[in-house]
Amino acid sequence: MVTITQLHPHFMAEIGDVDLMTPLSGVDVSDIETAFHQHSVLLFRDQPVTQEQQVEFSKHFGPLIPTTNYHREGEKNRLRRELADVSNIDSEGRLLAEDDNRRLHSQANQLWHTDASFKHVPARCSLLSAYEVPPSGGETEFADMRAAYDALPDARKQEIEGLVAEHSIYRSREQMGFTGYNEVARAELPPVQQVLTRVHPGSGRKTLYLAAHASHIIGWPVEKGRRLIEELIAHATQPEFTYRHEWRTGDLIIWDNRCTMHRARPYEDLAHRRDMRRSTVSDEVNTVEAARGAYAKAV
Ligand code: OGA
Ligand code: MN
To answer: What global pTM score does this model have?
Structure first.
């Protein structure tokens, strides 16, 4: 039987007495799923999984999204296709240079976000494993969007009910100072619509659905929508709703992208290695379509 230790008053739990390097029993899988629905972010310590073991464990949560890593032309992938390379090292084991594209793009992880909300069907959950961690910095922070929703005044809850936001990867990139993407790049990842609040399927609780990728509210003047999104992100990332994880080698964390946000904290990446690997599990439908479907069933 796995053990479950809550790490924060609202969310986050550590799962013990489990070995992710071996196939799990049905009971363990089901206990982990239940804990995931309740606590949203689960930490497993001392799990130095291989790439294959990480992929196998991840598949318990749904189909994996193949990754699009940024590499210099002709460079080999360091990791298998199911794993996103969240490290600062290249396929030869060298630290990425200051002007390396992959390094620059990964800096957007330092903005509060939820993974792949800029895709029509976003990510359900992500699993990040730590192979090598820097001596200081490089923590990951998580924010509980269900607790943040609960804490909103009733008038605010009513005002945002049913709103839809436009999400685009170029919105978060723009905030990092990257602009000037050409039409071809923009056509590859066109903006998508996602609900601003949703019912979290695992728990039935209402949650905010926010990210640095969210640019404005559909049907509202752009600036007004942007202000609302900024205000809600500021509300949802107050200390009482957040948890900071200091990584140790062998840690693996799974988070629920449907009801949490996360961000990476800076570290001296030109001097120290940080080797992290992420598997990403797809959701089933776009959030606006899911909400319409629920409405269709209700009437
Ligand atoms: C990610 C991510 C945060 C970190 O991999 O999706 O946001 O701390 N990572 O590396
Ligand atoms: Mn992320």
So the answer is: 0.96
